[in-house]
Every structure is written in structure tokens, then in C-alpha cells.
Design brief:
Layout: E1 7-17, E2 24-30, E3 36-40, H1 43-53, H2 63-73, E4 76-87, E5 90-99, E6 102-108, H3 110-120, E7 124-127, H4 128-146, H5 156-165
Parallel strand pairs: 4-7
Antiparallel strand pairs: 1-2, 1-7, 2-3, 4-5, 5-6
């Protein structure tokens, strides 16, 4: 587990659908509501999160309910989950467990870690490096779509030219 100063505590701010691909997205938000981290997830994981958020009880335990029950029965607690890395457009996570005085860090997909954290009421942390990398990734994607390589040093005249060339499709909702 990282040092807490290298992470930011976040919570599930909501679930949405990518307007283009219709893929579910979980939005993590920091406690001050200044930062958000969208993570594209699978439909089953989105359903698992949504049922927990909405307090819907299924007739039979879902996978994450089963995992919570097993951990509880063997005396294991979920201390926290952490989104640890962003590599090649893929997020990585870990579930931090405490079992018989031992601290264990188990590799996980972010969607499973978040679904488990919701069920166990455990905190969700995101490594600052992940937020920085995600921010850079989004800036690069936006710049590439406009044909601009580095937007930080674009002159006022260049901005005017870029904006003149943009049409309504360039302003589509994008996470």
C-alpha cells in the first residue's frame, strides 16, 4: 500500500454511459468535488455497483456479495481499495486486506475493487500519479482530436484559428 500522501481519497460519484460506445463508466470524485476520474467498466460490474448504490437486494448473492461474505467468515477485513496505476490506457487496482494481523495487497480490476469497496463501506484511494496520467491522457486525446499537439503554448491567434475550424461535432459530450 502506498503512503497516504501519495493518494487521494475518492468515492463513487455516479455511473453513466459513454454516449458513443454505450459502455458503462464509473465516475470517482474526490471529497471536495474538484477532481473526477472516469473509468470505463463492464456491464456486469456496473450492475453490481448500481444495485449496491441503490440498495437493491437480489434474491441470491451476486459475486461481490459472495466475496464479502467469504472474507467476513474467515475474519478478513477490507481496509481500503486503491487505483494504483494507469498503463497503456488500462487502470490497475489493489484490494488491501487485513487477515490475522497481516496486511495483504491483492491485485484487482478497478471495477471489482470498487464494487467490493461499496459493499464493505471501505475507502477508495487513487494514486496521485494515476490522476496525473489520466489528466494527461485526456488532454492528449482532446488535443489530437483538434490536431493540436501541445495546447499549453498556443498563441491567441492560433486559438482563434483552431476555434474557427471547429464545428458542432467537435463539442460533443465527452468523458
Amino acid at each position: 500500500m502506498r503512503k497516504r500522501e501519495d493518494t487521494i481519497q475518492m468515492a463513487v460519484g455516479g455511473l453513466t454511459l459513454d454516449p458513443v460506445t454505450k459502455t458503462p463508466i464509473v465516475i470517482l470524485k474526490d471529497t471536495e468535488n474538484k477532481l473526477n476520474l472516469p473509468i470505463w467498466i463492464g456491464l456486469l460490474e456496473a450492475t453490481a455497483m448500481a444495485t449496491e448504490i441503490e440498495g437493491i437486494k437480489m434474491a441470491r448473492p451476486m459475486t461481490h456479495d459472495l466475496l464479502k461474505s467469504i472474507l467476513g467468515e474467515v475474519g478478513c477485513s477490507v481496509e481500503c481499495v486503491e487505483i494504483t496505476e494507469l498503463k497503456e490506457n488500462t487502470y490497475y487496482a489493489a484490494v488491501n486486506l487485513k487477515l490475522a494481523g497481516r496486511d495483504l495487497m491483492i491485485d484487482s480490476r478497478p471495477s471489482d475493487a470498487i464494487a467490493l469497496a461499496l459493499r464493505t463501506k471501505s475507502p477508495i484511494y487513487v494514486a496521485k500519479a494515476v490522476l496525473e496520467a489520466s489528466s494527461m491522457l485526456q488532454q492528449n486525446e482532446d488535443a489530437n482530436e483538434r490536431g493540436v499537439e501541445n495546447v499549453s503554448n498556443v498563441s491567441k491567434e492560433k486559438w482563434a484559428e483552431i476555434l474557427e475550424k471547429m464545428g458542432p461535432d467537435d463539442f460533443k459530450y465527452k468523458q
